[in-house]
Every structure is written in structure tokens, then in C-alpha cells.
Amino acid sequence: MNTHKHLRLVIEDIYANGNQITEELLSRLINEFRYSNLYIPAKRENGTLNFIIYEEDSSKYTPLFTDLDEFHKFYADSDVEVFENSFELYQNVLKTSDIDGYILNPSCEKYLFKRDFILGIKNIPKTSFHSADPYTQDELTEIRASIDNEKLESFMSDHSNIGNWEDLFENLASSRLLGLMTSNLDLSAYADNGIISQKSTGPLASMYIDRVGGMYETVFSSDEKISEVNTDDYKYCQIINLATLINFILAEDMDGLILNPESDSVLIPRTVLLKYSLGFERFANDERSCESIYYIFLLNSEV
Predict the structure, then answer these.
(1) I need a surface site. Which of 71, 116, 165, 216 has the fewest CB within 10 A?
(2) What string of H, E and C letters represents the secondary structure of 151-178?
(3) Kind and range of the H or E run holding 88
(4) CATH number belonging to the domain at 5-119, selected among 3.30.43.10, 3.40.30.10, 3.40.50.12280, 3.40.1350.90
(5) Which pTM value belongs to this model?
């Protein structure tokens, strides 16, 4: 369950700094808030669902909650409902109401997000990636066969490039990357010319997550790099849209991304992904790959 630990950590750091917001804390707060999916309470009255509003010192506020545990601390045994929503809704509620802001976790942090602060946040992250002309199964098969990330692998193997995020991201944006999909079942019988359509079968495999020291999504530059991952499950791969993956990592409160774990093991922490997230949307978003999540491939060694 997403508990928004990174957003709560920023608020903890603000309080530890005497409630003084430095430029660095402000940047972290805005970035984490933009990618949050917080819970908003509402109550049904005469068949209408209304967000709950509290008045205090002539100001009106609506509570927000990082998770259901915080919601139940404040609304124990009540008929109040709660809905998880993206940041865009928080702004839209303010635009269509006279409330003055939100109070986050009123039973714990009690952090006040004022109206002007929220409406002043720009560059709202995309919540969906869609194309009217997605790659077909045959086109994805051709893309898979043409993958060559030698330039990216050469860049990562050069230790002088450690921390050179701009050039790394430029290489990533021009590369075709793979995700590792795992299953406890041998799925080769479902494959047609090395590709499995989960549109026909339903979900068969899940994306590999590195859980050492946190929760990290993983991407790979080749089948060979995937083969170096030590797991008892059967391994498959999937063509990924990097922009979609980065947005998922940030919205799901994950700790970052690892490129080629157990070989190159290039770790990109969450703070860096947040800093460059809009660049991924603009320069690493192949919209036609929006349906690649429905297809998985046998590794070349298994075909």
C-alpha cells in the first residue's frame, strides 16, 4: 500500500527545520505533492456526494490522507467515504469551490497546504499515456529484434560517467529498453513466434522489482543483462515506455530505478527522477508503445 512515505519525510524535515521552508525543501515538497495520490473524504447527503469541509478561524479546509490508516484514525466508525485521487483533482476542487486549502493527516502531521500554494504548482504529471495508433504485435516483434543498446552499455561501463545524469538520460531516451517479467510458470506454450499476447491470456507475469534497501523498478539493455538476474522464477521480457515507467515509480512512491541490476547496477534515486521527470515525459515518451504492457517475449536463449 502506498503510504506516501517520501512526502511525509519532506514534511518531517520541514518541521525539523522550525517550519522554515528552504529552497531545497520547497522543491522536494512540490515534486512529491505533484506525484501524490492522496485520499479525500466525502459524505453522501440526499443522494449527493460532497467533499467534507471544516471551518476554522473563518477559513475552510478539507482533509487529505496519505493512506487508509490515517483516514481511520480521524474517521473511526463513521459513514464518511474516502476516494484516492491524483494531484490534478486537488487543484480542480479548489478551482470549483471556496475552500482555502487542505490539511494533510489531521490526526498526525496536520500539515496545511494553502490554496495559493496548490494552484501555483504547474506542470502536472500525465496520468495516462495513450495513442490512437499503438504498435501492433508484429511491429513490437520487429522492434524487439532490432534492439541494440551498445552505446548505452558503453556509457554505463565508463566509471567516469557516474553521476552524469544529463548524459545518462540522453542515452536512455534514445535507447529501447526492456523490463524483466517473471512468473513461476513456464509460459512458452503461449508464445507465438516468441511473443505472448496477454490480451488473449490475461496477466501471466509480473515486473521484477529489486527490494534490496528499498523498492526499485528495474530496466535492462539486453537479454544478456536480464539473464544475469538471479531468480527461481521463469524470466521473460517486455518493451517499456520509459516515460510511463518513471511516472509509475514516482506515483507509486517507489525509491528509484536500477539499470541492469546484478551487472552494471546503475541506481537512479527517486530524488533524481523527480528532478528530471518532466524531461522524461517530453523526450522519452514513445506514445505508440502504450500497449506494449500487454505483450511479453521469450528471452532469445529460450526461442
Answers:
(1) 116
(2) HHHHHHHCHHHCCCHHHHHHHHHCCCCE
(3) helix 87-95
(4) 3.40.1350.90
(5) 0.93
